[in-house]
Amino acid sequence: MIFCVEDDNAVRDLMIYALNASGFEAKGFDCGDSLFDALRAERPQLVMLDIMLPGEDGISILKRMRMQPETKGIPIIMASAKGTEYDKVTGLDLGADDYLAKPFGMMEMIARVKAVLRRTGSMEEPCVIKAGDLELNLDTYVVLAGGERIQLTLKEHKLLRTFMESPGRVFTRDQLLEMVWGTDYVGETRTVDVHIGTLRTKLGACGNYIETVRGVGYRMEVRI
Prior knowledge:
The protein is α/β, with parallel strands linked by helices. It has helices at 9-21, 32-39, 58-67, 85-93, 106-120, 154-165, 173-181, 190-203; strands at residues 2-5, 26-29, 46-50, 76-80, 98-101, 128-131, 134-137, 143-145, 148-150, 171-172, 210-213, 217-220.
């Protein structure tokens, strides 16, 4: 579970969506009071903490968390629209595990979260990846689209997993060939187009999540 403390509703919703799409569970809070209420009931894997908050600011919240035995070991990534060296140094000196300067991309945020969790030993690899109405179980290889079980070939499963693990990222056909078919594969990039066409058909309405980027390749984008 990742806690996101951000007072901008749109930004917070986007953060939660990106984390959920990457296989994490996430909850959002708009101030320190609601965060500490939640911390009394549940210990998250990590806290994303904005510095500029109404009422108690992020630096003060960070100090409190590091002083309390129950929360001092929770990894924290600070975020600030200021992006000043002072904010960054202050947060890191007080025990923050990483820092993001706004505006930041969701892919960068996910990469930072995973890096901090690996570094702190808190990484729990998700066994189920979710994207919109799509679910992919990494242990059983079961794929659900809109709650309906879908039968995929191994290559289709690898393609889908590649997209779902990196939402929003554009993959070229050559990249997909190398990642799914392997570096020893001898064939045309048309193979990718054929498999993606079949995958889209099998996924039904969820097939629209896989978008064609004209002249480049493909990406998965779930519109909300």
